[in-house]
Amino acid sequence: MSANRTPSGSADVCIVGAGPAGALVADRLAARGHDVVVLEAGERFDDDSRRERMERHIRPGHGPLSVWDMGGERDAYTSSGDRGYPLNRARVKGVGGSTLHWQGMVMRLHELDFEQASRHGVAADWPLDYDDLRPYYAAAERALGVAGADDNPFAPPRDEPYPMPAFEPSYSDSLFADACERLGIATHSVPNARNSEAYADESPCIGYGTCKPVCPSGAKYDATRHVSSAEADGARVIDRAAVQRLEHDASGDRVTAAVYATPDGETHRQQASQFVVACGGVETPRLLLLSASDAYPDGLANTSGAVGRYFMDHVFAGTGGVLDAETRQNHVGFLTSECHQFYDDPRRGTEQGVPDAEGDASDYARLKLEFLNYAGPSPVMEALGSEEWGDALLGSLRQSYGNHIAMGGLVEQRPRASNYVGLDESRTDDHGNPVPDVHWGIDDVTRRTLERANEIQERVLDELGAEVTWQVGPENTGPAFHHMGTTRMGYDPAESVVTPEMRTHDLDNLWIAGSSVFVTGGAMNPTLTLAALSLKAADHLHDTLASV
């Protein structure tokens, strides 16, 4: 029997998007007794299909987009910037959103990330600081189930331990740790949103190693946990309900309905008292731009002109090679060690062998270094893709697997108006709407920081005695697929889209949750900050509803 996708007769809150931001807001509000409806463009995936989806990932006969059924007219996009942006490699349209295929590392932004203009005269300050988010960071760590340790001397202060103990360092982490100690480089654990022990009715991680793009066991957090919790408290989640536009009243002060299409070809209007857009850093500005009206000719909530502007991502820096020793790569599918030592000032070297870099602090972006656990070929993928059998295959696997090693890193992109998400009027999706156009490139500061990351990575691999066989730097870098900044927050309605409470400046009952509200992105994976901000937005929305 087909699902009922007709609108609810009335709702306190309509949320667009059932990814992590939308799910957390829905769960927090439904638990407080509010009538919540969530509209999700993608489908609701069956948990029982996850092992089969893992096989799609490891078997060479399936393309990467097939794991979560991405691609085609529905997911069409263009990329008109200096560098091509492979948008669909980063997206899952479905209940759970990007957390269905993310890798699961969750760090807090550093204190300076909120004050870059004040401290260094670059980028812009957030309209809130680290202390404002501190209790929400702790709440987000509990909600997501984070395994971590307080062993990072460069991390911002915290008031309580992580919900679960950190994962033990991998074998290759120990090789890096010895080399880094000789160079005066500190290594420390990585907080992960995956279970190091039983948590939230889910088992501990059992090591499938396919965390990205699919965790078959459920030990890694995904937003379906909070969708289920919200539904248990009375929220209604409608899948395959693609919102086409938001409509507003005659005054242009309030949203009146979310207009959505369903697979049967019908179009419906969901009314509510309050609306939350939580579609991610690309689809959120796209929906606002598609909702242009006489009152908002440049897009809904866009009197500032900032909707879609200041698109940020993190760019990857990496260096890898081989050792004349076993490294045990691909035994772990996520990071267990990293380094924030160069985060606040990538120029700084060490007395033990990393030279200082030239220039001022403002000449460099934030930089986080990572010690990879998945360098080199996977033996499973090598075997499945080989035409050899038996002893010949075994011999080839022994030659190609076992001695690879690599470092990675994330480099910040500062907000620039020239990086943006717009609409491509020349191409349409399956509903006839203009597709998103991602205009993206990197600037000299990003390039310089990538070069510095490579320099440090080379020095570490040299200390290990590794032969460097590949490197990703300024010329061949790519995105980490962390979409940020396209509906930035701020005090000034002329320069920002939402207030520090995540309510739009232009419309009284329209809120935005997710990484699109970031002012700067730092170099930390954004999901924990996204979750903290979503919990904060939910509290402000609850106060608004309670005051009516």
CATH topology of the largest domain: FAD/NAD(P)-binding domain
User: What would you say the CATH architecture of the largest domain is?
Assistant: 3-Layer(bba) Sandwich
Figure out the total of helices. 11
Low-pLDDT residue spans: none
In total, the number of strands is: 19
Number of domains: 2
Please compute the radius of gyration using only Cα atoms: 23 Å
Content of β-strand: 15-25%
Largest sheet: 6 strands, antiparallel
The portion of residues assigned to helices is: 10-25%
Report on this structure.
One of its GO terms (molecular function) is oxidoreductase activity, acting on CH-OH group of donors. It holds the Pfam family GMC_oxred_C. Its cofactor is FAD. Residues 196-225 form the 4Fe-4S ferredoxin-type domain. Keywords: FAD, Flavoprotein, Oxidoreductase. The chain is α/β, with parallel strands linked by helices. The protein folds into two domains: 1-69 and 93-146 and 209-303 and 484-548, FAD/NAD(P)-binding domain (3-Layer(bba) Sandwich), CATH 3.50.50.60; 151-190 and 315-411 and 443-478, no CATH class. It is 24% helix and 16% strand. It contains eleven helices and 19 strands. It has helices at residues 20-31, 50-58, 116-120, 130-144, 171-183, 224-232, 280-290, 379-385, 390-400, 444-464, 527-547, and strands spanning 13-16, 36-39, 78-79, 147-148, 164-165, 188-189, 236-238, 242-248, 255-261, 267-271, 274-277, 315-322, 337-339, 367-371, 404-411, 420-428, 434-439, 467-472, 510-512. Strands 6-13-14-15-12-18 form a six-stranded antiparallel sheet. A five-stranded parallel sheet has the order 7-2-1-11-19, with helices on one face. β8 and β9 (255-261) form a beta hairpin.
